[in-house]
Every structure is written in structure tokens, then in C-alpha cells.
Predict the 3D structure of the following.
Amino acid sequence: EPEIKEVSVGQAQVRAIFTINKVGTIAGCRVTQGEVRRNTRIRVMRNGEKVFDGEISSLKHEKDDVKEVRQGFECGISLKGYNDLSEGDILESYVIEKTS
């Protein structure tokens, strides 16, 4: 039976929140560890508690849509079906791997 494990890809901290008509909430973030990738799962942590677990709907660096943003860089992240982001939230990018 395959084992399922989470592998952390990176972390970003929300520095600012932007609300844009027809788009929703975009979190202005700085990647603090590893990298954030558009095609990974994302978990929102607030004061040590998980408040959302889902997917990224858009990842931007400056004005460009990108696949990943590395540590030390700023990015804009919006999440599928979740707009309740706050300054100071930690976004954890991770993948789920199956091991046999």
C-alpha cells in the first residue's frame, strides 16, 4: 500500500493585501524559504493554525504570470476559492508524494 507524505516546497509571508474587482484578493508576499510554485498545494497558517488548504489560482512576479518564485523575491498570490487572507499569514507551498 503506497504511503502518502507531504513534502514542503517553500514558504511565503503575506506583507500586504490588495482587493481587485472581478479578481478578488491578491496577497502581496515575500518568499522566505524555498520557493512557491503555482502547481503545488498551498496551506494558509495564521497564528500557528491552519485556516485554509487548497490551490493557487494565480502567481505573479511584478506584472508577469510565473510558475515559481524563489526565496527573497516578492510575488502576488491569489488562491482558488479563498479571499480571507491577512497581513502576516504564512503560505506554505507543498506537494503530496506517494511512496511505494
Remarks:
- The CA atoms of residues 21 and 83 lie 12 Å apart.
- The first strand starts at residue 3 and ends at 20.
- The domain at 3-99 is CATH 2.40.30.10 (Elongation Factor Tu (Ef-tu); domain 3).
